[in-house]
Amino acid sequence: MAIELPSLPFSRDSLAPHISKQTLDYHYGKHHQGYVNNLNKLIAGRSEDHATLEEIIKEAAGDPDKAGIFNNAAQIWNHTFYWRSMTPSGGGAPAGDVEKAIDASFGGVEGFKEAFAKVARTQFGSGWAWLVAKDGKLDVQSTSNAETPLTEPGVAPLLVMDVWEHAYYLDYQNDRPGYIDVFIDKLINWAFVNENLHHA
């Protein structure tokens, strides 16, 4: 049962001018597809060949003999979650239950934005910035490389921003803070965040 590249939830040119079609052609069409291709080669003929992506990630996590499997599988999952975390004409203020949870956990939307931007800016090297639900509250955290909160008991990912350079370098060069601000203000898919909160 080969792992397949999930479809994007938007067209490759619909996030422009914030994220260009060229970036998506490389990031989705080359990087994301590359992780899928690599994982399928690694699991061919193994027990993982019949497992779901989530099962593969959780089974391989922390096993140095399965680092390649984990890294490629987690990168597939993280990227799929990232695409769904964005939407054309996104950003703005959250509504509904997630707005109440953000108010309770961060003292308001501006508090969330500051905390989320800080973990994204200060993630050294490649990685991810997450909004998660944990112990009845929301929190922000970063993970390095392919690490994902999916492997943390009691933690539910709600939103993610990719801060690997390939996510923004064609459009923003080395201006990671500029990319972060645009993601927060123009791209966040709050409906997706609400959906994840309801299943947390």
Automatic annotation (TrEMBL):
<comment type="function">
    <text>Destroys radicals which are normally produced within the cells and which are toxic to biological systems.</text>
</comment>
<dbReference type="InterPro" id="IPR036324">
    <property type="entry name" value="Mn/Fe_SOD_N_sf"/>
</dbReference>
<keyword id="KW-0479">Metal-binding</keyword>
<feature type="binding site">
    <location>
        <position position="162"/>
    </location>
    <ligand>
        <name>Mn(2+)</name>
    </ligand>
</feature>
<feature type="domain" description="Manganese/iron superoxide dismutase C-terminal">
    <location>
        <begin position="94"/>
        <end position="196"/>
    </location>
</feature>
<feature type="binding site">
    <location>
        <position position="166"/>
    </location>
    <ligand>
        <name>Mn(2+)</name>
    </ligand>
</feature>
<dbReference type="InterPro" id="IPR036314">
    <property type="entry name" value="SOD_C_sf"/>
</dbReference>
<protein>
    <recommendedName>
        <fullName>Superoxide dismutase</fullName>
        <ecNumber>1.15.1.1</ecNumber>
    </recommendedName>
</protein>
<dbReference type="GO" id="GO:0046872">
    <property type="term" value="F:metal ion binding"/>
</dbReference>
<keyword id="KW-0560">Oxidoreductase</keyword>
<dbReference type="InterPro" id="IPR019831">
    <property type="entry name" value="Mn/Fe_SOD_N"/>
</dbReference>
<dbReference type="InterPro" id="IPR001189">
    <property type="entry name" value="Mn/Fe_SOD"/>
</dbReference>
<dbReference type="Pfam" id="PF00081">
    <property type="entry name" value="Sod_Fe_N"/>
</dbReference>
<feature type="domain" description="Manganese/iron superoxide dismutase N-terminal">
    <location>
        <begin position="4"/>
        <end position="86"/>
    </location>
</feature>
<dbReference type="InterPro" id="IPR019833">
    <property type="entry name" value="Mn/Fe_SOD_BS"/>
</dbReference>
<dbReference type="GO" id="GO:0004784">
    <property type="term" value="F:superoxide dismutase activity"/>
</dbReference>
<dbReference type="InterPro" id="IPR019832">
    <property type="entry name" value="Mn/Fe_SOD_C"/>
</dbReference>
<feature type="binding site">
    <location>
        <position position="79"/>
    </location>
    <ligand>
        <name>Mn(2+)</name>
    </ligand>
</feature>
<feature type="binding site">
    <location>
        <position position="27"/>
    </location>
    <ligand>
        <name>Mn(2+)</name>
    </ligand>
</feature>
<keyword id="KW-0408">Iron</keyword>
<dbReference type="Pfam" id="PF02777">
    <property type="entry name" value="Sod_Fe_C"/>
</dbReference>
<comment type="similarity">
    <text>Belongs to the iron/manganese superoxide dismutase family.</text>
</comment>
